[in-house]
Amino acid sequence: MTTHLSISGPEAADRLAIRELVDAYSHCADRRDAKGQMALFTKDTHFVVYMDAKSSTPSMELNRREDLAPVFGDLNKYEATTHFNGQNTVVLDGDRATGELYCIAHHVSSSGGKRTIFVASLRYYDTFVKADGTWLFAERKLLVDWTDTRPLGGGS
Q1: CA dihedral sign of residues 132, 135, 136, 138
Q2: pLDDT for position 154
Q3: How big, in percent rounded to 5, are the helix, strand and coil portions of the chain?
Q4: Around 39, how many Cα atoms within 13 Å sit in the side-chain half-sphere?
Q5: Distance CA 124, CA 30 (A)
Q6: Which end of the chain, C or N, has fewer beta carbons within 10 A?
Q7: At residue 155, what are phi and psi to the nearest 5 degrees?
Q8: Measured between alpha carbons, how far is 54 from 10 in angstroms, rounded to an integer?
Q9: pLDDT, tens only, 59-108
Q10: Apex 78 CA angle, 107 and 33, nearest 5
């Protein structure tokens, strides 16, 4: 844990901008705004998914912003999603930063008149860069710690 006795205005602004970036990622996902989500990444981004966080082999690895379109578009198969972002640690180093974010992602599906919910506990390991005054993801590693799928009762 980092102790801040004081924080400069520029550092506070950078930390806020990075938090807004990770929250924008989830917001775009939940609103099915794949183009908006893609715009949060550098052109030569590195996006890696580990469906099993204990595996050393990624389930998916992409190296360009435009390659993210089908991944983000895949969320359209769900009736609704809700991503809750939790603790977020960030280490700043000039115009670069690294961070870790915890997220609980809820995915609602409907088939044959029955609804199910798929819940995933996610961790993101991020590398950020500040380009032309804007923070972007240069690398995002998504690790799935656990999942649960169950019937969803009630209404919408």
Answers
A1: positive
A2: 66
A3: 25, 50, 25
A4: 8
A5: 17
A6: N
A7: -85, -155
A8: 37
A9: 999 999 999 999 999 999 999 999 999 999 999 999 999 999 999 999 99
A10: 100
**d(C-alpha 117, C-alpha 110), whole Å:** 9
Nearest residue to 130 via CA among 22, 63, 42, 44: 42
Two tokens, residue 39:
């715009």
Q: Which two tokens stand for residue 89?
A: 């640690």
Q: Which of 135, 139, 136 is nearest to 125 (CA)?
A: 139
Tokens matching residue 28: 């775009």
pLDDT band at 49 (very low <50, low <70, confident <90, very high): very high
Within 40-153, where are the H helices?
A: 69-73
Amino acid at 37: Q
CATH code for the structural domain at 9-151: 3.10.450.50
Structure pTM?
0.92
- Residue whose tokens read 């609103």: 31
Q: For the segment 115-137, what is each residue's pLDDT rounded down to a tens digit? A: 999 999 999 999 999 999 999 99
